[in-house]
């Protein structure tokens, strides 16, 4: 958690400069650099997105970094109102932070920085050029600031990380180390559920004919596969960084190898997505691949939540997705 959030902050910190550059001198080079900076930030965020505990959920930071899922197009409607009113409150990171979470993060930046074909439109000459550039810069500075605070808060010795590491009778949050372990473990399971239920299943719809590739996170900018791969990879790496093998009874160690295989299998399906996925999804017959991905992710969930949790004698915790 600590190194990944630090990496996210470092990558996000480069996004404002790339935004300034493409707005000052629109060229193939600056557009490529902006696209790269945006993609790297999206991927780094995806790797920590599952952390629905501690610093990332404080002050609604997760939603402020990316308002997803957004099936009703709330962000787009609110952004249209901003442009109609020429709302200057979105032109500085401080005032933007007080606006709706839907208009201040990476998902909002994608809507104003990329056109429907996935091309970078920041810096293009037009009536809204200066407003769009100022708004985009405010978003990137806001994202960089939030990412920096998330990373810093994970480093604080007596912060949330300190609570996880100091479980005991004097700790009001975690009375035993097992409780801390269960909290982190259940967060990983929830991350898998989010990836499958919010990021993959909505794309499939009720049939292949009714598939909705636009529902992929960050598909507008051509980063759908990158985001999905980052989510799955981040959860996988977090799980194996816990070194659960030393806690797992010998007769159940095979579960870890099977999980590693299923995570890898999931990435194979993701790699079959060719950007821009909105245009290529049906051409490449990706529907079957995404159905297989949903099955693989469900297998990961079951192996973790049922088999491995049982082997480790971990109790299931509160799942914010179902209200249990």
Verbal overview:
This protein has helices at residues 2-12, 15-24, 28-46, 61-65, 74-85, 93-96, 106-113, 129-155, 160-165, 177-204, 224-241, 254-270, 277-280, 286-311. 60% of the residues lie in helices and 0% in strands. The protein has 324 residues and is mainly alpha-helical. It starts with a helix and ends in a 13-residue tail after the last helix. It is built from 14 helices and no strands.
Entry keywords:
single chain; mainly alpha; 14 helices; globular
Number of helical regions: 14
Overall geometry: globular
Rounded average pLDDT: 95
Structural class: mainly alpha
**N-C termini distance:** 26 Å
Share of β-strand residues? under 5%
Q: Give me the count of strands.
A: 0
User: Which regions have little confidence, pLDDT < 50, spanning 5+ residues?
Assistant: 317-324
Strand/helix succession: HHHHHHHHHHHHHH
Helix content: 55-70%
Biggest sheet, in brief? none
Radius of gyration: 20 Å
């Amino acid at each position: 958690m600590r190194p990944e959030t630090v990496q996210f902050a470092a990558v996000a910190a480069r996004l404002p400069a790339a935004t300034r550059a493409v707005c000052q001198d629109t060229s193939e080079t600056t557009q490529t650099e902006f696209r790269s900076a945006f993609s790297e930030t999206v991927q780094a965020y995806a790797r920590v997105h599952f952390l629905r505990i501690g610093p990332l959920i404080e002050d609604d930071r997760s939603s402020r970094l990316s308002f997803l899922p957004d099936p009703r197009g709330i962000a787009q409607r609110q952004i249209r109102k901003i442009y109609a009113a020429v709302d200057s409150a979105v032109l500085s990171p401080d005032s933007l932070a007080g606006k709706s979470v839907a208009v201040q993060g990476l998902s909002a930046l994608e809507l104003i920085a990329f056109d429907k074909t996935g091309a970078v439109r920041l810096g293009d000459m037009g009536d809204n050029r200066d407003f769009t550039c100022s708004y985009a810069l405010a978003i990137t500075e806001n994202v960089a600031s939030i990412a920096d605070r998330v990373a810093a808060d994970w480093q604080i010795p007596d912060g949330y990380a300190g609570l996880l590491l100091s479980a005991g009778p004097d700790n009001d949050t975690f009375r035993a180390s097992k409780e801390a372990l269960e909290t982190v473990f259940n967060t990983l399971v929830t991350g898998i559920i989010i990836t499958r239920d919010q990021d993959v299943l909505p794309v499939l719809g009720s049939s292949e004919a009714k598939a909705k590739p636009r529902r992929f996170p960050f598909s507008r900018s051509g980063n759908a596969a990158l985001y999905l791969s980052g989510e799955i990879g981040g959860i996988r790496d977090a799980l194996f960084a816990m070194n659960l093998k030393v806690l797992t009874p010998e007769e159940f160690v095979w579960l870890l190898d099977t999980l590693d295989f299923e995570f890898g299998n999931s990435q194979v399906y993701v790699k079959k997505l060719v950007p821009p996925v909105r245009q290529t999804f049906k051409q490449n017959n990706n529907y079957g691949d995404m159905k297989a991905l949903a099955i693989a992710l469900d297998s990961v969930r079951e192996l973790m939540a049922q088999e491995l949790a049982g082997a480790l004698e971990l109790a299931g915790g509160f799942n914010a997705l179902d209200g249990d």
